[in-house]
Amino acid sequence: MGKHAVQILKLDTDKLILMLNEALAEEWLAYYQYWIGARVMEGPMRSEVEPELLLHADEELAHAELVANRILQLVGTPLLNPNQWTKFSKCAYEEPIDSYVEAILNQNLKGERCAIQRYQDIAEFTNGKDHATYQMAVQIMNDELEHEEDIEAWLNDLARMKEDFAKLRM
Ligand SMILES: [Fe+2]
Ligand SMILES: [Fe+2]
After folding, report:
1. How far is the CA of 8 from the centre of ligand 2 (A)?
2. pTM: predicted TM-score of the whole model, two decimal places
3. How does pLDDT run along the chain (170 residues), one tens digit per residue?
4. How far is the CA of 35 from the centre of ligand 1 (A)?
């Protein structure tokens, strides 16, 4: 994007670039949360859930790319050092100390809900003022909504499995 195109945006571009850098940090941390969680995970449905979590991880990385490209178009600087990720991210990174599949999924669910809020905020900030960023935020938010649904479905399956198992033992 050229300088004029940035000037015509009817919003505070510094604030927008900050929000986008926060989102960039969150995407990288979400990527790693999925990637490492998928590897240490243990318990029922592991073999089914693991490749899906790795797919989510890839999608978070694709989001990071979209966000970084948009920052560059806005003549901003994407975060240059990974040690900035935890400082900029508003979504907590949670170490998967408990490797049980349900614990991992719950961590990922919290991350998705935080991501949905992030893109909701960016969409609200840019709506009617910066169409390109708005479109990107909605596109990414749709992926995050799907991720949330996927995780909720696995958690429901696990809960169901536990209930059936409890009944058998009665
Ligand atoms: Fe994402
Ligand atoms: Fe996601």
Report:
1. 31
2. 0.94
3. 567 778 778 899 999 999 999 999 999 999 999 999 999 999 988 999 999 999 999 999 999 999 999 999 999 999 999 999 999 999 999 999 999 999 999 999 999 999 999 999 999 999 999 999 999 999 999 999 999 999 999 999 999 998 998 888 87
4. 13
**In the chain, which ranges are continuous DSSP H helix?**
3-7, 13-40, 46-73, 85-88, 101-126, 131-169
The CATH number linked to 72 is 1.20.1260.10
The first and second tokens of residue 68, run together, are 């970084």
- Those residues whose beta carbon sits under 5 angstroms from the ion ligand 1 are 27, 60, 63
Nearest to 33 by CA among 103, 136, 117: 103
Q: Print the domain residue range for 81.
A: 3-169
Specify the number of domains making up the chain: 1
